[in-house]
Inverse folding.
């Protein structure tokens, strides 16, 4: 029924008047055509004015209930999409309010649903602008040293002028998504077990071992690593295709001429380390030997740890075209390890910094640490 200049109540009143008199008189009196009165009668039937008012009220109430039901269903759908457990920080709540507004909720209703004051919706965070230079420096350092965690990166940031606490560094490190993948945990040996010939000063105990790798063409690379257990300094990494006992003696002789002879040499029971040539040279040089027990590589834990860092931070990241290139790259990494890379067991000093510190502050020797 098209819209008329009469309301529904007026139409019903005219119909009742036409019932008392006649359709023609009612039409003439109210200036309406007779077919219109007959159409009204067909539409309203026997309803009176009170029934029409009641019907109109019910229609309005029905429309209001439909609207409330639709809004409730929309709220339920929005709440299902929102993870309420993670709505802790105001920034997370602001993001969810924006999502709810995109789904069709008003800003006022979205704020009430999520529990955020509308005054905080327009707040602009100042912390991201403050953290942006630090995160950019973190990303650059992480790209340069992909196997370093946030602790070592914090030392490098301090060298660049960014003084950060451990907690803030860790927060920004996680925020930037720069977490280093965890390695598979290994079985640990009880730390209470006695360790033979524990070093108490620099040049007290040297440890040496071999690390193997291959070039792009499949040629074997054999690396002899020699470290000072006390200062963690890598004294030498000799790279070749094959290293026999004579070459081991040559490398050790060169190191002794530069650094002086250590008190003990620690190694495993490999054929290169227990050969007659090495044992004779060690005996003539007045150096003691500290060989691992068979099947116990953890007794040479300092050098094994260094070999793991060499593989993780250099060998696994580089692609060598030849042994000569491998020697150059590994020697550059050795210098970086000694002079640039902070060491966690040395209070995040480099081995050279720790060595210089020990020269000015010599430790008090503990005679009880040397054990057979």
């Amino acid at each position: 029924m098209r819209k008329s200049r009469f309301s529904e109540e007026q139409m019903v009143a005219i119909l009742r008047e036409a019932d008392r008199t006649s359709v023609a008189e009612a039409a003439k009196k109210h200036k309406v055509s007779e077919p219109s009165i007959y159409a009204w009668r067909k539409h309203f039937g026997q309803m009176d004015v009170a029934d029409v008012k009641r019907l109109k009220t019910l229609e309005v109430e029905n429309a209001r209930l439909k609207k409330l039901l639709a809004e409730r269903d929309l709220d339920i759908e929005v709440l299902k999409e929102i993870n309420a457990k993670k709505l802790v920080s105001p920034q997370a709540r602001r993001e969810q309010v924006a999502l709810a507004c995109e789904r069709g909720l008003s800003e006022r209703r979205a704020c009430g649903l999520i529990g955020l004051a509308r005054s905080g919706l327009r707040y602009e965070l100042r912390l991201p602008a403050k953290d942006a230079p630090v995160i950019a420096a973190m990303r650059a350092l992480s790209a340069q040293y992909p196997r370093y965690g946030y602790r070592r990166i914090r030392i490098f940031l301090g060298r660049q002028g960014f003084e950060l606490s451990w907690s803030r560094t860790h927060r920004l490190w996680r925020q930037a998504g720069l977490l280093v993948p965890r390695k598979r945990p290994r079985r640990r040996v009880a730390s209470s077990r006695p360790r033979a010939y524990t070093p108490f000063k620099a040049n007290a105990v040297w440890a040496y071992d071999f690390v193997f790798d291959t070039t792009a063409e499949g040629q074997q690379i054999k690396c002899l690593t020699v470290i000072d257990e006390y200062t963690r300094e890598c004294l030498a990494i000799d790279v070749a295709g094959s290293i026999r006992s004579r070459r081991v003696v040559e490398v050790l002789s060169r190191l002794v001429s530069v650094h002086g002879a250590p008190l003990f040499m620690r190694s495993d029971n490999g054929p290169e380390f227990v050969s007659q040539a090495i044992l004779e040279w060690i005996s003539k040089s007045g150096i003691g030997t500290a060989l691992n027990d068979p099947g116990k590589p953890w007794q040479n834990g300092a050098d094994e740890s260094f070999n793991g860092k060499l593989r993780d931070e250099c060998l696994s990241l580089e692609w060598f075209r030849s042994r000569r290139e491998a020697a150059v790259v590994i020697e550059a990494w050795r210098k970086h390890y000694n002079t640039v890379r902070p060491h966690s067991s040395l209070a995040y000093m480099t081995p050279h910094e720790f060595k210089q510190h020990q020269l000015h502050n010599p430790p008090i020797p503990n005679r009880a640490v040397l054990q057979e």
Remarks:
- The longest helix spans residues 49-81.
